[in-house]
Write a structure and sequence with these properties.
- Strands 11, 12, 13, 14, 15 and 16 form a six-stranded antiparallel beta sheet that branches.
- With 369 residues, this protein is mainly β.
- The protein folds into two domains: 204 residues, no CATH class; 131 residues, 7 Propeller (Methylamine Dehydrogenase, Chain H), CATH 2.130.10.10.
- 9% of the residues lie in helices and 41% in strands.
- It contains five helices and 29 strands.
């Protein structure tokens, strides 16, 4: 049980001088950070008007390659890197056909073996796969699955990503306490550690949805109980936008001191938005979700925010709920569908895909028009 919910809302740089959520807009304006008003209405066609289907990638299913979950997707020049935490499998599939190129299954207790994986990334420059496990180790493998070496990590983080020759570890947590403003950065060339941010804590009993950090054109980060979108620049978190969501719900949440009371409040207070997640950047748009599943598009040129709710009935009822924040600077948005839904879809699809109910997931990539 979460005994006490004390929220330390002191984001980096420009929010450090106050703990009043309601003052953030004024501070953002003073620091010349874009304040984005939340749309009152919801569109049902913004996505289809501005994005089009680019590629469908059915992940190959074989007798020895059937995964029950997809927990990480990174689009690379080599192909599409996949992680299934439940199955303990790292795989690379062809970016066009989905054909399996190789997989790594190394569960065990020996050198280069793991019990549970937390994340995986591919370093294109060095052609090395980095697998992060729950023993605070990063294992290095070549593309044949051979174990090369390991890196020790100072704490247990939720995830990692790779950018500009560095491994970035984020979402450190202990029980209900998260440290979203503390990043550990490992320079692969210098073999040196640096730490970004501070130790300010966010104590929140609810499971935080989506991804806290995503690598696209830039690395964008976010935190629970914080309506700021941060960008990683030169090993520092810099606020890029402030989202002008209603702040009164956050003030109410700060006064809750018991988990059961929090549950009652969430049930009676309606659909409380307490954070955003899964931020990806394309050429003209910034795309993200809120914790209630709201799907947003920021037109970077106009500096206008749009909220959309769509269902593509002619594409297996694909919707914003299928959005998957993959890593990779490819100017695209990814949606992942379970073949069961595709087989059971009633409407005639615009494209035919030969899948069975027990096949691996299918990836749908969309690009800006």
């Amino acid at each position: 049980m979460c005994k006490r919910l004390v929220f330390y809302l002191f984001p980096l740089l420009f929010f450090a001088c106050t703990d009043k959520t309601g003052n953030r807009k004024e501070i953002a304006e003073k620091e010349q950070i874009s304040v984005l008003d939340i749309p009152e209405g919801v569109s049902h066609d913004y996505f289809v008007d501005h994005f089009s289907l680019d590629r469908i990638v059915p992940i190959e299913t074989t007798d020895n390659f059937l995964i029950s979950s997809v927990d990480k997707i990174q689009r690379t020049e080599k192909g599409i890197l996949l992680l299934s935490v439940k199955d303990g499998v790292i795989a690379m599939v062809d970016a066009a056909s989905g054909k399996l190129l190789f997989q790594i299954r190394r569960r065990g207790t020996g050198p280069g073996e793991y019990n549970n994986l937390k994340d995986v990334v591919y370093d294109e420059a060095n052609k090395v796969i980095y697998a992060y496990n729950d023993y605070k180790k990063v294992f290095l493998y070549d593309l044949e699955g051979r174990f090369l070496s390991e890196i020790s990590v100072d704490a247990l983080y939720g995830n990692m990503l790779h950018t500009q020759g560095k491994l970035v570890f984020f979402d450190r947590g202990e029980g209900y306490t998260r440290y979203p403003y503390r990043l550990a950065v490992y320079d692969l060339h210098k073999r040196q550690w640096t730490h970004v941010g501070n130790e300010e804590a966010v104590n929140f009993c609810l499971k935080y949805k989506g991804s806290q950090a995503v690598k696209s054109k830039h690395v964008w980060l976010n935190a629970p109980l914080d309506f700021t979108l941060y960008r990683l620049e030169k090993d520092s978190m810099k606020p890029g936008y402030y989202l002008n969501f209603p702040t009164e719900p956050l003030e109410q949440l700060k006064r809750v001191t018991d988990f059961s009371d929090l549950m009652k409040m969430m049930q009676t207070a309606g659909r409380i938005v307490y954070g955003v997640n899964s931020v990806r950047e394309c050429e003209r748009h910034l795309v993200f979700q809120d914790n209630q599943g709201g799907f947003y598009f920021l037109d970077k040129g106009k500096n206008l925010l749009y909220k959309d709710r769509f269902i593509l009935k002619d594409l297996f009822n694909l919707s914003a709920n299928d959005y998957y924040p993959h890593d990779g600077d490819d100017n695209s948005l990814l949606f992942v569908l379970n073949p069961v839904r595709m087989v059971e879809a009633e409407a005639e699809p615009r494209v035919r895909i030969d899948v069975k109910e027990d096949d691996n997931p299918v990836l749908f990539f969309f690009k800006e028009k």
